[in-house]
Write a structure and sequence with these properties.
Number of strands: 4
Strand order of the largest sheet: 1-4-2-3
Structural class: alpha+beta
Strand content: 25-35%
Distance between the termini: 49 Å
Helix content: 25-40%
Number of helices: 3
Order of helices and strands: EHEEHEH
Length: about 100
C-alpha cells in the first residue's frame, strides 16, 4: 500500500458541557474511551489550551465547567466519525446520571 492510498482527513466540531459538575473524572473517562476507539489524532481545545482527547489527565487539566464550549479537532482516516461520536457522547451527557 502506498502513502497516496491512505486517505488522511481532518474534521472539526464543538460541544457544550451539559453536566452539572463539568468534565470531572467520570465523563472524562467516557470521553477518553470514545476518542481511543478511533485511529485518528483527536484534540480538545478550551480557553486556548489544546489537549489529547485520549488522555484522561489532559482532559481533566482543561477544568471545563458546565456550559464550557469545547472545540474538537481530529486528523486521520476516521476523523469525521471521531468528531461525530464525541458530539453524540456530549449530547448524552457522557452517559452520566446524577
Amino acid at each position: 500500500m502506498t502513502k497516496a492510498s491512505i486517505k488522511k482527513s481532518a474534521a472539526k466540531g464543538r460541544f457544550v458541557v451539559g453536566n452539572d459538575r463539568g468534565l470531572h473524572t467520570r465523563p472524562s473517562t467516557e470521553l477518553v474511551k470514545c476518542a481511543s476507539s478511533f485511529r485518528s489524532n483527536v484534540s480538545l481545545i478550551y480557553q486556548k489550551q489544546s489537549v489529547n482527547a485520549k488522555s484522561l489527565l489532559g482532559i481533566l487539566m482543561l477544568a471545563a465547567t458546565k456550559g464550557a464550549k469545547i472545540a474538537i479537532e481530529a486528523e486521520g482516516e476516521d476523523a469525521e466519525e471521531a468528531v461525530q461520536s464525541i458530539i453524540s457522547l456530549a449530547k448524552n451527557n457522557f452517559y452520566i446520571k446524577y
